[in-house]
Structures are given as structure tokens and as C-alpha cells.
Amino acid sequence: MKTRLSRLALAGTVALSLLAAACSRTEGPKDAAADGPSTDKGPAAELRLGFFPNVTHASALIGLEKGLFAKELGNTKLVPTKFNDGPTEVSAFLGGSLDAGFIGSGPAINAFAKSNGEAVRLIAGGTSGGAQLVVSGDITKPEDLAGKTVVTPALGNTQDVSLKKWLVEKGLEDKVQVTNRENPQTFDAFKKGEVQAAWLPEPWSSRLVLDAGAKVLIDEKDLWKDGKFPTTVLLVRTQFLKDHPQTVQALLRGLLAANDFAKTDVAGAKTAVNTQLQSLTGKGLAAPVIDRAFTSIELNPDPLAGTFPQLSKDAVTAGVAPKETDLAGFVDLTALNAVLKAAGKPAADAAGLDKK
């Protein structure tokens, strides 16, 4: 454990310095488009992998804790880098300080849009589901939110877009104050009564319900066909995908291994996630919290590409984006489908978003 903590602490320190550089390099040279000529340079020397300390990033946490990514990567050094929100991870991608990362669907679209469709490609899914609008006991219907404060993790993140789009649909966009706080701060503020509602990913929605007396007003699953929507996906920097396709496939094999582990050993998966959360945040989850959180997520390597045009529209409706993002070329499932085929699993559908 001590070795892992040291490694992650070092990665976090490196990430901070790299992120500082990223802020000044966002407008710098852009990666070549994925449909350009291959520049395969063989396995990468290292892979800088981003992720969040959330249950919605369970595939990443399991893969790290059980050594599944490292096993598949072989001699490629894995550099895990923790982020607390999608916009910060987007800055790392655009600054070139991150090679691959688990990230929310909203920031994934934003990274593609900010780089004019050049910097990143969506190569796999991570998690479907796992987000809820939780409220104080006096709120029983959407209209009760009028005059209240609702919190999301970060401006423009996946839950921020979902909330603001939903408020517009309910005619509440000018009647509700939306603020952004880091999830632990939201938990404390809710317990103190400073905020009355929050649209949060797991495990934070479960923590507010079980540890702070909140109740569920909206489960985001209920807003999507068949209850499926991409909460977490896997992005790769376009140039890294072109230069090191073998490494990308190795990463994806690790992803499938993490998902398979979660299916065959649910208790072991929960323990792996909780151990990582303890290492990353200094505090694990109580058994009822992690049990509840796991019931609301589905680990799925399919990124549900067909939902992304709607997600792009939602960002405009929410007032987070000025216009819809042209998603042509955003998705590249070549590596994923090769790995799925080798594992005897069905292919994922790019929904036409792999074409320029």
C-alpha cells in the first residue's frame, strides 16, 4: 500500500506541474487528425492515465488496484494521475500532459470541440448510469426547487450539463441557483443545510442519501432510453493513438479485464474500489454506501456513441456550449473492437461518428 501511495503522490505532484503548463499551452500546436497517415512507433515508454476517485470510475480503480493495466502494458510504465473534475482533465489533454483518461461525457465533447476535432478520440466506454439529483426532505417535486440552491461538481462537467438541461425542460432555469463545489464540500454543505439539492455522481449521491439524510428526486437513468447513458468514457490523445496503437490495445485489454473481474467477483471489485479510494482520498466508503453505489452503475466498454449527438445538443440547451459540436471523427473504436473480437465479445457501434 505504501508503495502505491508514494507512486500516486508522485503522479499527483507531476500532474500539478504539468497542468500549470497546460493552461498556457491550450492554444498550442494541435495533434494530427486520426484519419491521417499512421505513425506507429511501437509500444510507448509510458502511459499517463487520468481518472477520478469516484465509483463511476470503477473500471479505472479496479484496473489500478489489481494491477490489470500494468500487466497488459508490460514494459510500458503506467503513470496514474488523479483528477477531481472533467474540465481540469480536459486542460491536461489539451496541454499534452495526459495520454489517456477516464472522463465524463460532457468534458469529452468539450475537449474535442476546443481542439477543433483534433486533440482527442473517444475509444471506449467506462460506466453507464450512476448519477442522481438528491434533495432535502422538504423537496418533493421539481417546482419545489424554486428559490433553492443546487450544486454540481464543476462548471461544464457531465452532471452540470444534465442538471441545467433538466432545469430548462422544467422551466426552472431562472428560478434555481446553480453553484459548483467539489464533492466533499457539497456533502458538508448539505449536512449543514447550506444547500438543498445536488446532481452528483456515485458515490456522492449515495453518501448524501445514506449519511446526510437526502432523498432521490431524479435518477438520471430514468431520463434515457433503456436507462443507459455514458457517465464515464475513455479518451486518448489523438497523436498517442497514432503513435502507439499497441499500447492503446493493451490499455483496453486491461479495461476488459477490470470489467470481467467486477462481474465475476462483485465483493472483490467493491474492495478494490474502496482500497483505491482510501489511498487517494484518505477515506474509504462504508459498506452500505459502496453497496448502493454499485447498484446504480454498469461497467460497459461500449461508449454508447449514439447518445453523443443528444449530449452535444444538451450542452447548448444547458447554456454550457454556444453551439452544437460537430462530432464527425470523434469516435475511433478500431482498437476496442479488435480487443473485443479477440475476447469473443460483440463489437461496439461508433454510430457513424468515426467518419469525417
TrEMBL record:
Localization of this protein = Cell inner membrane; Periplasm
Q: What is this protein called?
A: NitT/TauT family transport system substrate-binding protein
Protein family: Belongs to the bacterial solute-binding protein SsuA/TauA family.
Instruction: Name one cellular component (GO) term.
Output: periplasmic space
Q: Known CDD domains for this protein? A: PBP2_NrtA_CpmA_like
Q: Which NCBIfam families match?
A: SsuA_fam
UniProt-recorded Gene Ontology molecular function terms: ATPase-coupled transmembrane transporter activity
Source species: Actinokineospora alba
